[in-house]
Design a protein that fits this description.
oxidoreductase activity, Cu_oxidase_Cu_BS, mainly beta, single chain, Immunoglobulin-like, secreted, about 35% strand
């Protein structure tokens, strides 16, 4: 049996004014705001083990409110530590602190943590790696483990981007760059020195823990001429399979094995690159971020490298609109489903909920000018309802039975009705069919469910057919995730065992869609006895 120990730490959220990384080499200096979060003053990497009890005290050193979310951690009976503002907690005010207390139970692998207030996760994020207490279920000898975290950079303040978007009713400004481990790379202006370079040794195998912490885009990633072997997604082991590249949505993680078995050219390096997977007609950052895999002791050019970064060939990297690759890659992911790591997908269900995902338009209020399509305001919805955060956390309202005016229960099992929430008895096996619509624009949506993992038992393009499509479900080894990329113009069916009492947020992990209201949630009632009941709230 895996033991229990405690991790203690302090996260310091502080606001710094820093020179933007992309001033286009001009004499003018663009300045922007960025949040910096420190873990023990050194790193953004949290590394507990399965079974650890975690206590993290967050001290808010900025004037704005903030919260932190431990993305993918199941938070069994500890919804107070989940983090989404006004859903499971009121925000941490400037100058105040909050201690997140939870236990890592039955999970091992790569997750992430990030701010969950407004658009702060644009720069407040990091890796959350849960180490197993026993050997990995793959036999490769690993030379080193390498976190690779994708992000986005704005020359301006991302919070102001959201505020302007909501004020005008228009779409948000795109980011100015993508980053690999915080560095944009040489394809962006004045960023040659801000390039991620990872040194490897020929013949050695490395475990890459890949995390998409970007705010607004799904991404393709590849390393030139190298093969990646997927062995785990979102802290769940998978059947290994080889691929030349991956597609990864915001909030998703993919762990791969990579063997350094190629002979480099005179540079001694191979390009690694990430670019967006585009399915939307909205303006977007369609640039590419690159870093390098540098082979140790390779015979390299002794003088100044004659390589022009803009001329580099991005081997293996799919085109930005390569839906065929994205679909094929996702379809390859299967749970390991071994005796040691079983696939506990619910074979039968108690309830099926069909939920439409929509981008919408709303008439502009009188005496106001809106900059959305046709002079209207952009909104988003699930089952034709746009989520609005209340002034008190929903979990506190539920716990204290303060339901009047804070939330409504009975989210419709089929669209549309005027409700926001579904309430489930403990232990319910629920199937949620997420259906993309074309009210305004077809788009791939990464939908994240808090507090529970789920199994993607089926997906497809077009409209879900309740008579036909369930016959094709995979109930043997479907992928287990916490964030599902719902196909553009299609559907995804997920199955959840509602065995974690509390209030749990469901939302799109494209941040502008959540701001527009593409979110809902569900309440799981207490079961029988203390072990199936929500723990009392913390003193604060």
């Amino acid at each position: 049996m895996e033991g229990v120990r405690k991790h203690y730490g302090i996260l310091l959220a502080s606001l710094a004014i820093i020179a933007a990384a992309l001033p286009c080499c001009s004499s003018q200096t663009t300045r922007g705001f960025q949040f910096n979060v420190e873990w023990k003053k050194v790193t953004r990497l949290l590394t507990p083990s399965n079974g650890d009890s975690i206590h993290i005290k967050v001290k808010n050193r900025i004037a704005q409110n903030t919260t932190l979310h431990w993305h993918g951690v199941r938070q069994l009976r500890t919804g107070w530590a989940d983090g989404p503002a006004y859903v499971t907690q009121c925000p941490i005010r400037g100058g105040q602190s909050y201690t997140y207390k939870f236990t890592v139970t039955g999970q091992r692998g790569t997750l992430l943590w990030h701010a969950h207030y407004a658009w702060q996760r644009a720069s407040v994020y990091g890796a959350f790696i849960i180490y197993p207490r026993i050997q990995y279920p793959f036999s490769h000898r690993i030379q080193a483990e390498i976190p690779i975290i994708f992000g986005e950079w704005w020359n301006g303040d991302p919070d102001e981007v959201e505020k302007t978007m909501l004020l005008t009713g228009g779409g948000p400004d795109s980011s100015n760059a993508y980053t690999i481990n915080g560095l944009p790379g040489p394809l962006y202006p004045c960023s040659n020195q801000d390039t991620f370079i990872q040194t490897v040794e020929y013949g050695k195998t490395y475990l890459l823990r890949i995390i998409n912490a970007a705010l607004t885009n799904e991404l393709f990633f590849a390393i030139a001429k190298h093969t990646l072997t997927v062995v785990e997604v979102v802290a769940v082991y998978t059947k290994p399979f080889a691929t030349t590249s991956i597609m990864i949505s915001p909030g998703q993680t993919t762990t791969v094995l990579m063997t350094a078995n190629k002979v480099p050219d005179f540079t001694g390096m191979f390009v690694m690159a990430a670019r967006p997977y585009l399915t939307s007609v909205f303006p977007s950052n369609n640039s590419t971020t690159i870093g390098f895999l540098r082979y140790k002791n390779a015979r390299t050019w002794k003088g100044k490298s004659p390589v022009d970064p803009s001329s580099l060939k991005l081997h293996n990297l799919p085109a930005m609109e390569d839906t065929a690759f994205a679909t094929k890659f996702s379809d390859k992911i299967r749970s390991l489903a071994s005796s040691q790591y079983p696939c506990n997908v619910p074979k039968t269900i108690d309830k099926r909920v069909i939920t439409t995902i929509s981008l919408n338009l709303q008439d502009c209020p009188e005496n106001k000018t809106c900059s959305g399509f046709k002079g209207k305001s952009f909104f988003a919805s699930m089952n034709n309802q746009s989520f609005v955060r209340p002034s008190i956390s929903i979990l506190e309202s539920y716990y204290k039975n303060l339901t009047k005016g804070s939330f409504s229960s009975g989210f419709p099992e089929k669209p549309p009705n005027n409700f926001d929430y579904t309430v489930l008895p403990y232990g319910t096996n629920i199937e949620i069919v997420l259906q993309d619509t074309s009210f305004l624009n077809l788009e791939n949506h990464p939908i994240h469910v808090h507090g529970h993992n789920f199994f993607i038992v089926g997906s497809g393009f077009g409209n879900f057919n309740e008579a036909r499509d369930p016959k094709r479900y995979n109930l043997v080894d479907p992928p287990e995730r916490n964030t599902v990329a719902v196909p553009s113009g299609g559907w995804a069916a997920i199955r959840i065992k509602a065995d974690n009492p509390g209030v749990w947020f469901i939302h799109c992990h494209l941040e502008e869609h959540t701001s527009w209201g593409l979110a809902t949630g569900f309440i799981v009632h207490n079961g029988q006895g203390p072990s199936q009941s929500l723990l009392p709230p913390p003193p604060s």
